[in-house]
Amino acid sequence: MTRAAAIAAAVDTLASGRFKADLARRVAMPTVSREAAHAPDLQRYLDDELAPIFARMGFDQRQFRRDPAPGGFLLASRIEDPALPTVLMYGHGDVVTGVPEMWSAGLSPFELTERDGVWYGRGTADNKGQHSVNLAAIEAVLSVNGRLGFNLKFLMEMGEEYGSPGLADLVAENPEAFAADMLIASDGPRIGRLQPTIFLGARGGLNIHLEVVAREGYHHSGNWGGLLANPGVELAHAIAALIGPTGECLVPELTPGRIPADVQEALARCTIETSPGDPPLDPWWGAPGLSQAERVYGWSTLEVMEMECGNIAKPLYAIPPWARARLQLRHPVGVDTDAVLPAVRRTLDAAGFQRVRIVPATDAAFPASRSDLQNDWVRFASASLERTLGKPPVILPNLGGSLPNTIFTDTLGLPTIWVPHSYPGCGQHGADEHLPVSIVHEGLAMMAGLFWDLGHRA
């Protein structure tokens, strides 16, 4: 049996319709981790969907529960020989809320629908479609070769969209159970729809809640305008002290200060490309003097996620009593997160906005992480993908978004290689989430080739 046969077996799951049927069944499970009513669905995904697959492939299985995680964790292990390298894989079976009222006509979040070579449904891109690609590729290699040729541990969690509560403690308390030589996982998007990608970490994510509370009650703007401070105006100017008019973060402590030379070199080879349906880029927006790739992968962005002041839908034509905003900092390695809120406080005070409060955030925060760009496993994985595709993948130092990657890099000390099977315009976390079938086809081939090569290393 050959490498080509393993790749063909993986791709055949797509041609035969089996992959689509498997993904449709998984999408139909409303595994929404932030809604307590769906807790049974989270467990059902582990018990009824994943456990039989791992059992069929000869994996031993353990399930864990950790408070306050909304769902459980499944660790499936296939140890063929303790002397062989061990790969840890990761995926998550939970999804964000469906918001069916926001989807296009004829589409529904928990029903897989195909249109023009694209599969629509909640989880197709994040993350059911992605770990389905990896599972199908593993099974294809086993069906052709009878063995993997390496040890494999696959960790599935059901609370990533809730902030992965309990995962860090679980891994820290059971380091031997999760011990490995490297992590291979699939989440997040490629750099572009037509650009197969490897990324080695993730930017950190930190939420900053701001609030101005001036008084109780609304007061007629004709009677009190010019006499009462307007919290909306105060908050708008306070945000302007933190973010410049073209989106530049104005607080130095919230940025890495500089981009390391090896990261600059890697990003110099990256081009941000859009696909049909993506929003057009704004090249004038963001930190000045940086390329677009450097802005999203090598630098910090401070964005306004939500603002509240008054009620636009039911206007009172009155000065509002309060205003609130939630800002989000995305940052690469090199930012001291303990210094972020004190720096924001100093900046606001220096600009005269002492009345603007920093409210403790309840949102989960993700630290930044990045594996060594020159790691041997990175070169190995890149060479394997190039062998399959006939072209090298784009190698990003880190994803622009956030993932619980530090659990693997810092707690377990693993080099991390992420091979995403999605793209930036996939609609994840929004309406009409989708996954192009072409990316599935390419992903099945890439991963089957990578797993084959891992088991046939010289």
UniProtKB/TrEMBL annotation:
InterPro entries: Cyt/Met_Dipeptidase, Peptidase_M20. It comes from the Bacteria. One of its GO terms (molecular function) is metal ion binding. The keyword Lipid metabolism does not apply. One of its GO terms (biological process) is proteolysis. Keywords: Hydrolase, Metal-binding, Protease. PANTHER family: BETA-ALA-HIS DIPEPTIDASE, SUCCINYL-DIAMINOPIMELATE DESUCCINYLASE. This is Acetylornithine deacetylase/Succinyl-diaminopimelate desuccinylase. It comes from Gemmobacter megaterium.
